Amino acid sequence: MKLPAKIFLFGTLSAAFLAYLWSGPAFNEESLKGVKVLVTGASTGIGEQVAYHYARLGAQIVITARRENVLKEVVKKCQDLGAQKALYISADMGISADVDRVVEFAEQQLEGLDYIVLNHIGPSPYQMWDSDVDHMRWLMQVNFHSYVQMAVKALPALEKSKGSIVVVSSLLGKMCSPFALPYIATKFALNGFFGSLQHELAMKQSNVSISICILGLIDTDSAMEKIKGHIDITPYPAHEAAWQIIKAGVLRQSEIFYPWYTYYGVLFRDWFPHARDQVIRSCYNYQP
């Protein structure tokens, strides 16, 4: 296909995507009042903002992360914002027993589940890969295996409530990039597994929906610290990313992209492969 034809098709698909978004079902904030939600990775960043949005809308929330002292502060703010119930459980997603314990705690304390927002990630250096296979294996447990384990554990409760699994992923789970190989591997795994699980649940006529949220660069402290000196891209606000994540679950959307450029980045990857690699490499500051 010649370049002008590719550009025309690219524009047509983009317009169709925007038309689809504008014609979709309306988001009703009142529908979240009293819903039972488990949010992981909620001590800071996007997960923290997700918890605050749910709290403001009167949901019942269980949050989890490793740092108990920070979780206490987030729960207090959730209560102040109007959450019907706000509880925390500290856990390490690198430990399989902790993963099950979190879901069991949420189901018992909330007497069921309507939404589970899988958002946690393990720390990983932002640098050329140093062939550390042990770190890759550990990060896969935290960023991928624990997601699968929590989803499986929560499925019976979500079937009863016609609930939703919301998976926070990344553009780096769609597009290869330097400096974050272990992280990227886990995000590709997430997109592959949960995208395939969407099909299987639909074929089984399951009551449970799965929403995969493809995020670009968000202005969390950890993200900003990692990319400092490596790449110059404008970040987008965590509170807005969190809002789009919540909307995706309510509207039972199979996949959402935030901010706007993430969708076009995926199209660019597929339609302009020769230019893709040059653009990616030119975005990074690296001297061998």
From TrEMBL:
Keywords associated with the record: Oxidoreductase, Signal
Signal peptide: 1-23
A Pfam family the protein falls into: adh_short
SUPFAM superfamilies associated with the record: NAD(P)-binding Rossmann-fold domains (SSF51735)
Record has Oxidoreductase as a keyword: yes
InterPro entries: 11-beta-HSD, NAD(P)-bd_dom_sf, SDR_fam
GO molecular function, one term: oxidoreductase activity
Family according to the record: Belongs to the short-chain dehydrogenases/reductases (SDR) family.
Name of the protein: Hydroxysteroid 11-beta-dehydrogenase 1-like protein
Species the sequence originates in: Pygocentrus nattereri (Red-bellied piranha)
The organism's taxonomic lineage, starting at the top: Eukaryota, Metazoa, Chordata, Craniata, Vertebrata
